[in-house]
């Protein structure tokens, strides 16, 4: 009995220590400190990334108009899902329209600040694609990134199983293209656009060979904030009319 009690005490201490672990953010706040007028949303992009800077500006202004302090949190794609589903953070900054089909604890903010494209990339000059269906009945070897719901949904239905490879990071996909280990890599356009500006890939001849789908980008809030969702949507709509979204984009690109 004494051994069991000691084991229980050790486990309890470990749980307390683990609960205090924090993750990257741009403010230094911990999720457990977020009370009252603060709201924290996660994104799997480092704060100095173009898209992260753009979204940070958009939602700092949007929540500011709602008298709330916005906190940007950066962590891995898998942890983003876990934290937002559980309500440990208040939601996610950027997901595709139907993301909450598999994440029912989240509510979509209907107003989308901008759209983006899923594109197919290659080094070959003779590949031409247009939409997901254009991959059907081809023998192309295709890579896609873990954690992207859209590619997980679409590619297995049009690409032969033996030709489809899931990788962990966009750098792996681009490196496999340049090494000739795959024919096509599918990812979000803005992600790869920024990657191709880096020294590692700027002379790689990687280019867009087809647009798979244009998608709207939405924030998702945990269901505990359901009353806030329409208010945030209305504010984003106002900001678009004022031209602020495009202004922030230009600022982020600089």
Explain what you see.
This protein starts with a helix and ends with a helix. Strands 1, 2, 3, 4, 5, 6, 7, 8 and 9 form a nine-stranded mixed sheet that branches. The chain has eight helices and nine strands. The protein has helices at 2-19, 50-65, 77-86, 149-154, 170-178, 189-195, 229-241, 244-253, and strands at 38-43, 69-74, 91-96, 106-108, 114-122, 142-145, 164-167, 184-188, 207-222. The protein is α/β, with parallel strands linked by helices and 254 residues long. The protein has two domains: 21-114 and 217-253, 3-Layer(aba) Sandwich (D-Maltodextrin-Binding Protein, domain 2); 116-214, 3-Layer(aba) Sandwich (D-Maltodextrin-Binding Protein, domain 2).
Secondary structure layout plus pairing:
Elements: H1 2-19, E1 38-43, H2 50-65, E2 69-74, H3 77-86, E3 91-96, E4 106-108, E5 114-122, E6 142-145, H4 149-154, E7 164-167, H5 170-178, E8 184-188, H6 189-195, E9 207-222, H7 229-241, H8 244-253
Parallel strand pairs: 1-2, 1-3, 6-7, 6-8
Antiparallel strand pairs: 3-9, 4-9, 5-8, 5-9
Helix pairs in contact: 2-7, 2-8
The CATH superfamily name of the largest domain is Periplasmic binding protein-like II
What is the number of strand segments? 9
Quaternary structure: single chain
- Return residue spans where pLDDT drops below 50 for at least 5 consecutive residues: 1-23, 25-36
Named at the architecture level, the CATH assignment of the largest domain is 3-Layer(aba) Sandwich
SSE class: alpha/beta
The N- and C-terminal alpha carbons lie at a distance of: 65 Å
- The total of helices stands at 8
- Indicate the CATH topology of the largest domain: D-Maltodextrin-Binding Protein, domain 2
Radius of gyration: 21 Å
**Secondary-structure element sequence?**
HEHEHEEEEHEHEHEHH
**How would the global form be characterised?**
globular
Biggest sheet features:
9 strands, mixed
Mean pLDDT: 87
Count up the domains.
2
User: What proportion strand?
Assistant: 15-25%
**CATH secondary-structure class of the largest domain:** Alpha Beta
Helicity level, as a percent range? Answer: 25-40%
